[in-house]
Amino acid sequence: MRRLQSSKRPSRVRVPDPVTFDECLPLSLPLFPVCLLSMRAVNSSENTVIVAIVKRPDREEASVMPLINAGFNRRYVENANMMACYNELLQLEHGEVRAQFKLRASNAIFTALEQSQDAIEITSEDQVIQYVNPAYESIMGYQQGELIGKEIIEVPKSEKNKPDLLETINSCIRKGKEWQGIYYAKKKNGDNIQQNVKITPVIGQGGKIRHYVSINRPLNDNNKCDKSTERVQAESQTDIQSSKHKDRRKGSLDVKSITSRGSDGSSQRRHSSMARIHSMTIEAPITKVINIINQAQESSPMPVAEALDRVLEILRTTELYSPQLGTKDEDPHTNDLVGGLMTDGLRRLSGNEYILATKQPHHLPSHLATPLSLNDIPPRIAQTMETEESWDFDIFNLEAATMKRPLTFLGLKIFSRFGVCEFLNCPEATLRSWLQVIEANYHSSNSYHNSTHAADVLHATAYFLCKERVKQSLDPIDEVAALIAATVHDVDHPGRTNSFLCNAGSELAILYNDTAVLESHHAALAFQLTTRDDKCNIFKHIERNEYRTLRQAVIDMVLATEMTKHFEHVNKFVNSINKPLAALEENGGNSDEESVKSILTSPENRILVKRMLIKCADISNPCRPLELCIEWAGRISEEYFAQTDEEKRQGLPVVMPVFDRNTCSIPKSQISFIDYFITDMFDAWDAFADLPNLMQHLDNNFKYWKGLDERKLHSLRPPPEILKLSSPRNVSTCPSETWLS
């Protein structure tokens, strides 16, 4: 005979010395009930399961009835295998013992239901009423006997609800989801009452719905509140439709009115408020994941529980998508580069301030005030743009041909190719004026973040928009938003990083609370420049709702270029789009067009595609032909050198110490940037959009930088003497490609 018990916590199992049933045979079975009742009478034997351990019977049909009649809960056939015995004990604990432990609380639970001021109704899975509490009887005017056993549909309904509301509720809860909202119920006397209703499905064994619990709180019945409560509610609740706020506020006031009568009302009110906060159902997805893991830990072996502890530790951090770097000694280039791009800087209290954006935005230059049509573009510039549809298009040739105004001319051609003027219903002259104003607000003094970079990003965006998978995903309004976002995404960039501006206490950092400072400024300024003057307002003739949709898309894409969210955007794209598409292909190719379409065109995934598109366009330099890649690397390095110089002059924290022009290894910085930011992102984008030429350029460029680094070279290009040794005949034609070969 063996007894399992758990006096306070069901997870504890105490196993007394076993006594086999055969050893008890001298005792007659009628004596066993007395023994077992005595055992159960002991205080520590709550939640007890008493097991009879018997020898294997000679006949299969041996009856268990004598054991049951004697008071045993379970029969167990003797087994020499210790693991089998251990498994039996575990099953008993997690089955009968824990079930009994839970049942102990049932009286207390029903007492809570009976005392609740909310009307509570419990129905079966077939929506037959099984229980209503006294508050329900009081509010609705029914007695329990009139409702229990009736189907919900038999209870009269209010005609004030929308016709499809019941269908909506049933559709939600039958899927196992909770529904909460405003519902009109009809009292027994025929009066309508507005209630805040929460209906929660109760999931039983096997994942099936067993019950529905409905918690109803009246919104317009203040009869039970005292006069002071009614007055405060009247002052604080001006809109009865804001049900959730009214619901929370009313509960708080009820607690106050009740507990203030006691001598220790203050402490009681605080206790009640905290209990209410902990019972809130507002729960983020990550919180749900943490709760699931916590529950899994309870029944997990020790090694698994310890591993789950580590998982929880990681999940509770704020940077869920950012890889953790090693020590600075391991890779100072990567640490400095990533730290500079993905943080908001080190706060400084010295008072050194960096003045930015106190000047007014540039107006349209007078010598460009008369808009020209696309047909009036000078032949030399037009000839330079003939290959703009190719990925290998040389933006620097256009920069030279237009005297550092490539954005206006390339913008006119690309926007014309995509029919942007027709979509926006704006004249070409307005578009040209807008492009000129935007370009005038890029800083030509910046070595990297100037209008040439904007034109390059616009070119990459247009190239990506022509890819078949991208076209399947996006609507015309998305394409227009992407082109506009690419054009304005760095407008008025000061040539300094967000970290620098935050450390310097710049006006922009103060305005945007050190959060996405530059990206917020680019988006805001773009719309200020566009809407303040009808001559360049490309949005003037589009419908209000369309403008709102377009504006939100542009803002979202510009903000997506902020590097602190880089890994979040890439991970979401991979998990929401790449993986589901790959699964479909593995299960039968692309034949399931509807499934592919549903993945590509869902509103959430369209947003992810647009974010990924502009991110890849923004930092596509390592995927350009080698000569263009080298030029961009030199320009961004010069901008970072200038920032480091200024940080040292002003006594500010040096955000990226490796970008010291006297010691920096440009090849190492490029290798780190490609390894950390580019490779995974473009692998994902290539899997989606099919970009083999970009991936080939990326491979070539990485090998080029790796070759320089292996030779301990810090410069953009190898010295001439090395080039001569490599291939003297071709050195004059294309030095870098000769070096690569």
UniProtKB/TrEMBL annotation:
Cofactors demanded by this protein: a divalent metal cation
Compositional bias of kind Basic and acidic residues: 223-233
Family according to the record: Belongs to the cyclic nucleotide phosphodiesterase family. PDE8 subfamily.
Region of interest called Disordered, as start-end residue ranges on this chain: 215-273
Any matching Pfam family: PDE8A_N
Domain PAS: 105-176
Name the UniProt record assigns to this protein: Phosphodiesterase
Phylogenetic classification of the source organism: Eukaryota, Metazoa, Chordata, Craniata, Vertebrata
